[in-house]
Design a protein that fits this description.
Radius of gyration: 18 Å
Number of domains: 2
Structural class: mainly alpha
Order of helices and strands: HHHHH
Number of strands: 0
Strand content: under 5%
């Protein structure tokens, strides 16, 4: 079934990346990396050149972006503190206004519970990495101590471009 598109209402795509420098995109004039699909979206949309964070923790910032509230109000002041499920987000407001919404990938608004080192195998079997040589490390939040991550030997971007 094809979805009807209302020409009077804009589409929204919000990319939130983790540990990603802005200049690692072609639209920010990276001399090595090419990101033609993202660059095309940027040319036809809006690119934000300045972004200020509410906290040095990613989970707090994602919660702030979703709710429009500071960590002191939404309660997510650091990693491991989940955004309450009853929180009202801009996605809830868009959905209530008739937009279709989707989340693709990790969001980290909620904690990951009951993970064991063996869980990594089932995660990788369900969603194998696009390129197994990319640097990948699964940090398991329920462990009491951080284990040594096994990194691949090849970097996506050369140290010197």
């Amino acid at each position: 079934m094809a979805l009807e598109h209302n020409q009077d209402r804009p589409n929204f795509i919000l990319f939130i990346t983790d540990q990603h420098r802005a200049d690692y995109l072609g639209c920010y004039e990276n001399p090595v990396l090419r990101t033609p699909h993202i660059d095309r979206i940027v040319r036809n949309g809006v690119r934000f050149d300045k972004f200020y964070v509410s906290s040095p923790q990613c989970q707090s910032n994602r919660s702030t972006m979703m709710t429009g509230r500071m960590p002191s109000v939404h309660g997510v002041r650091g990693a491991g503190i989940p955004l309450p499920l009853r929180s009202n987000t801009f996605v809830d407001l868009m959905r209530a206004d008739g937009y279709e919404t989707a989340l693709v990938g990790k969001c980290h608004l909620q904690n990951i519970h009951d993970w064991t080192p063996e869980s990594a195998d089932s995660l990788h079997a369900a969603s194998p990495p696009a390129d197994p040589s990319l640097e990948v490390c699964l940090l398991i939040e329920s462990l009491s101590v951080w284990k040594k991550c096994e990194w691949t030997t090849r970097s996506v971007v050369p140290a010197q471009a």
